[in-house]
Amino acid sequence: MQERILQFLNKTYPxxxxxxxxxxxxxxxxxSISGLFFVRITNYKTYQEQLEEVNWTNxxxxxxxxxxxxxxxxxxxxxxxxxxxxxxRVVLFQAASGIHLPRSKWxxxxxxxxxxxxxxxxxxxxEYMKSGIKHWYESEEYDFLKYIPAKxxxxxxxxxxxxxxxxxxxxxxxxxxxxxxxxxxxxxxxxSNSKLTMIDFQDCExxxxxxxxAVPIYSALEFSFxxxxxxxxxxxxxx
Length: 239
Fold this sequence. Notes:
By secondary structure, this protein is α+β, with helices and mostly antiparallel strands. The chain contains 7 helices and 10 strands.
């Protein structure tokens, strides 16, 4: 499988790769004389959804937001197709600097930097709102009535009320727009100079901006609280 991917990359992209190594079932680390790259091979989203994602990511990159650069193919395409066990879509990223911080390193200073980065991303994206990126409530995961069994009448009613209440909240370009949508701490890299890079924009959507703040806070409380202080104080400090 990896040999087939290596051959495909060398045929399709203007970079000579000498090694491909699986990181997850859809991400591969690619070594080349030009440096380190990562290739995503997936059909998690449709071609059009991925195209909207990579176009927005490239726009953010052009605006100076710290996101990975996407490498175009020899055909000048940001998305290519490969046939493995089935047809999948290929996106090649230049590796971003930084690492996943150890749990104990996620402190209020890092979160302040992350908040500023998120704010810049939201701000520059106000000019990009005409994109075809979907609204949050169009996502499959919010189709509660499809997935909650019919016999669970009480929770189905509550879920529908919550969904409707959020959809009816007042929204304008100051509180609603394009967001990353999945800013778990695993999707943030930090380098030695405290520079942050946001990665993995597959779940980008139009949503209330505050969602991009709630997710990393929730992620920190679940995965990064190291027990060195009261968890309530930790939550307040990072918020």
